[in-house]
Specification:
This protein is mainly α and 66 residues long. The chain has three helices and two strands; from the N terminus they run E-H-H-H-E. It has one domain. The protein has helices at 12-20, 26-38, 43-53, and strands spanning 2-3, 58-59. Helix 1 (12-20) runs antiparallel to helix 2 and helix 2 (26-38) crosses helix 3 (43-53). It starts with a strand and ends in a 7-residue tail after the last strand.
Length: 66
């Protein structure tokens, strides 16, 4: 499963920037986020979409612990 986790009191945009930072993609990914929001996407969906577009979502094992 692909996922992203927002920290307590973190905005969706700040979460996107945090995920992008290790790769130096803050401007690109936040631009994607802003574009999706301007197109009417809800901020949580825009965050997921921007991270998905840049392949920055976490991959979690659906069968962990089974």
């Amino acid at each position: 499963m692909l996922s992203a986790t927002r920290k307590e009191n973190e905005t969706w945009r700040d979460m996107v920037i945090r995920y992008a930072q290790p790769w130096g993609l803050q401007r690109d990914v936040s631009g994607s986020f802003d574009q999706l929001v301007s197109e009417g996407w809800q901020r949580n969906h825009a965050a997921w979409g921007a991270l998905y577009d840049w392949d920055l979502l976490d991959l979690e094992d659906d069968n962990a612990g089974v």
